[in-house]
Amino acid sequence: MSTESPxxxxxxxxxxxxxxxxxxxxxxxxxxxxxxxxxxxxxIPKHDVGFVSGIGxxxxxxxxxxxxxxxxxHGRGLAVASGLKAARPDLTVIAAxxxxxxxxxxxxxxxxxxxxNMDILYIVMDNQVYGMTKGQASPTSDPQWPNxxxxxxxxxxxxxxxxIALSSGxxxxxxxFSGDPSxxxxxxVEAIEHEGFAFVQVLxxxxxxxxEQSEWKHQVKEVFSETTNDSVLAAQRIHSDNGMGxxxxxxxxxxxxxxxxxxxxxxxxxxxxxxL
Length: 276
Ligand code: SF4
Ligand code: MG
Description:
Bound molecules: iron/sulfur cluster, magnesium ion
Helix content: 25-40%
Number of strands: 10
């Protein structure tokens, strides 16, 4: 990791030398750029960022950052991020992944991370498909969406990530669009500055398996232009939206979970405690 002074940091300084392997036109490129802009805007030193992910196309993102990073196992990014924040509360901890990783195999971690309300930013790049494993329906796919594994659609009602986050206790809930990188960068800034669990669903098209998502640029609208701290009003707004509304829908001050672990405890003493 290079060590520029935080005041000299430009967005490009947060990028590593590793070239993304995403398909040309993938929405995730915009997430990478928007997040580097947000970190540079906030002047967060690179060694103060811990970037964690699960598995999938989008979960490759920590490798493209010149910060500390951890490419975890499927659906477990939030578990690692929570452990990291507990042990190092001074770090800006960011977790990222996709809709398959975060809402299916990692769904349980998502619920409890919202409920725990640790001071973490969680970005889900949602393209309504398992891209890395060649295009199966994910928890956010349209029930009629035809694909190789379920040619007549999955027939299963899609998961509503914002509604689940709200009902599970997340204290910052937003939706961004990779076709609006500057709007997305502003949302990331607010999310990082928020104290508590900040969930940002990014509509991030998969050009390869869902080329029809290029239409999203005509469908996404600035619906949540006013943020509320009223969970009933937020629920009404989320449920009356068609899944294409962007903005920060909900933000409130809730107790933030902080670990009370005594850092002076030695590893050997911990091992002794767990020895049967
Ligand atoms: Fe992006 Fe889809 Fe290609 Fe994965 S398969 S890199 S999500 S365009
Ligand atoms: Mg996906």
